[in-house]
Design a protein that fits this description.
disordered N terminus; 15 helices; Rossmann fold; 6 strands; alpha/beta
């Protein structure tokens, strides 16, 4: 049963009168320890909530306690109030305000710069997608790397403003029994891009080059067969007109451990931790060995590996976007408000003499 407008005003007026008082409370908030105030709120609740036999005096008082508890804490020092921001007249005053709140001005500047560049690069990606659709091209982007390297987060920034009708993200689960009896590449072929489409592979057929042999998910024979066939498979794709980009996101062992710890401590990220992740640090050297073999045998002139230094997530996201944009002369590219040339210190082709962090 809805609350009537009259009783709603009664409840609002009570809180306006109490929150406007300054009975020794911080920031003008009411004294939550005042029992008479609790009783007033409880009485108002009893008056507002329809009588259904469930609203007891004890329940009303408990709700009143919770409402009062919400105003018990002072505003943190680093919070910027609307009144403070509305009084600003220049960027210098804004910086002074940040410093007075002990806010790291450098971090704020870097965050603003990152968001500005990200938005401009996403605008270019929208142009690129429109051009690919118009030209009927097929673009397949492969994102590989160790666990917690930032592949998924980068894909989300790539796709945030793209048209979902001509874009797909492919993140396949482990193969079914039926798929295990098929040619290994078969389940990936059905997800390849159609004309006018971009497909993002969040891990790909290269599971068999690194993850599977390290974790004993395939036999040595299956592994060797894959390593022989994959250059031919990719050559056929490229010959048929598929634009294939293979990213490897490279992170250090220390950064991977820190990101795992962050996931364990964040309830919103705990789903990212898998049993394979739990063993990633222990099997670090095994991953390194198979990764290097993969680069040596599958890095080709027609399908090269692009290494992204990903210890800094934001840089990795921006520079991988720039790399993709730099490959194609899409319509409107010359009008870009942001550089589409990637930083060679962050994004580069694989070569054996390169300094390795993973």
């Amino acid at each position: 049963m809805p609350v009537s407008q009259g009783t709603n005003h009664k409840f609002t007026d009570l809180f306006n009168s109490t929150n406007g008082s300054t009975n020794g409370s911080t920031n003008g908030l009411s004294d939550s320890n005042d029992p008479s105030l609790r009783d007033q709120i409880a009485a108002t609740l009893k008056d507002i909530i329809p009588s259904d036999g469930l609203t007891t005096d004890e329940l009303a008082k408990a709700v009143a306690e919770l409402l009062l508890a919400d105003s018990r804490y002072p505003i943190p020092e680093k919070v910027l109030l609307h009144e403070e921001l509305s009084d600003l007249h220049s960027s210098r005053e804004f910086i002074q305000l940040l410093r007075s709140k002990d806010v790291n001005v450098g971090k704020i500047k870097n965050a603003i710069k990152y968001e500005d560049e990200l938005q401009n690069l996403q605008i270019e990606l929208v142009k690129l997608q429109h051009w690919i659709q118009k030209q009927g091209l097929r673009l397949a982007l492969i994102f590989e790397g160790r666990d917690a390297a930032g592949k998924g987060g980068t894909i989300r920034r790539f796709t945030e403003h793209l048209n979902p009708r001509t874009m797909r993200v492919v993140a396949l689960p482990k193969p079914t029994e039926e798929e295990r009896g098929q040619w290994y590449f078969q389940r990936y072929i059905r997800h390849l891009p159609n004309p006018g489409e971009i497909v993002f592979f969040d891990r790909s057929w290269y599971n068999r080059a690194v993850v599977e042999p390290v974790n004993k998910f395939c036999t040595q024979s299956e592994y060797e067969q894959f390593m022989r066939q994959v250059p031919e498979f990719e050559h056929m794709l490229v010959e048929d007109g598929v634009i294939l980009v293979k990213f490897w996101f490279s992170i250090s062992k220390e950064v991977q451990l820190a990101r795992f710890e962050s996931r364990r401590n964040n309830p919103l990220k705990q789903w990212k931790l898998s049993p394979i992740d739990q063993k990633a640090q222990e099997l670090w050297d095994g991953y390194t060995r198979y990764k290097e073999i993969m680069f040596g045998r599958t890095h080709t002139s027609f399908s090269p590996w692009i290494i992204v230094q990903a210890n800094q997530k934001r840089c990795a996201r921006l520079e991988s976007m720039r790399y993709v944009l730099s490959l194609l002369d899409y319509e409107g590219k010359e009008e870009s408000r942001v550089s589409v040339i990637p930083d060679p210190n962050i994004v580069s082709r694989f070569h054996r003499g390169a300094i390795k962090i993973d």
